[in-house]
Amino acid sequence: MQKIKILIFSAFIILSITLTSCKNDNNFDIDVSDIKIKINVKHFEKDLFKFKLDSADFYINLYKKKYGEFFKLFNYQITEIGPCDNKNYPENLDMFVRYWKTENIPHILDSAFADFDTEQIPQIENAFKHYKYYFPEDTIPDIYTFFSSFGYSVVTLDGIVGLGLDKYLGKKFYYLYDRVGWSKYQKRRMIKPMITTDIMRAVAVADYPYNDENGDNMLKKIIYEGKIQYFLNCMLPDVPDTLKWRYTARQLAWAEKYENKIWSYIAAQKLLYSVDRTEIRKFTGDGPYTSAFTDVSAPRAGSFIGYKIVEKYMKNNPDVSLKDLMEEQDERKILAGAKYNP
Predict the structure, then answer these.
(1) Rounded Cα gap, residues 174 and 36, in angstroms
(2) Which residues of the chain, if any, have pLDDT below 50?
């Protein structure tokens, strides 16, 4: 199969925020009203739960014809059921479908996302209008909604974005997330408002994957994460920063307040060029907080600094486009151009 990206994303509920600009002049007022795009959405989960073993050939042929490469992705990566031409495939898929029907999953999904086309698609469309503004030559992917067994939020594959609806059911269905071991901070992110942000983050990572072929270090990683956040600001100018950062309002306030101290700590501990993967993970990996600081700190504090460096770099270099930024592989150039000094 083709190389795929599978991403697990979520977000915290927010009450208030201060937005940060993606344009060098701090202007979010980008007019995308004249950009015409069409978001094609296919609801795989609806057809999936219609499966009947005595009509297996009919449904498998339907899935292959209607869902193509996504159907392969579902079989090989999402559920790991395996190839649909395997003699045991019909029975295995039947067991999968029947088990989740006993948990009332088809009804839960239908009820929770009855308004998907009217509520979610306009938000997704607006994000991709911004994407088309910044990347006019790029293709808008098709959206495939699916049921992931509570494992995956977003998957991407060559012109395809798969959205695991079961990862956005909200607090009412925490009991389902508890069964598969999602942590409290992760569950709080599994909400509908996070859908468009997760999709655009997945697109950014798929278009511009992290490249550590020539070595990995703290600076490289935090600049990369900063570029992804900057990309999100450009795609989602009206979305709260707490969603884009996957922070609570309190965590965002902490990061803003202690920006100088985070930077000073990294510098004092000589971590900026550290190749210690444990240290890099500590400052950029997901979690309830950044373990180098207190348990009320924001997670991924290093990534927050990376964003601030990228933001300053773009302000200092108004001729650099978003595409230029995302393609720039020299993190030292970005740091030097930022003249960052919080």
Answers:
(1) 38
(2) 1-3, 8-26
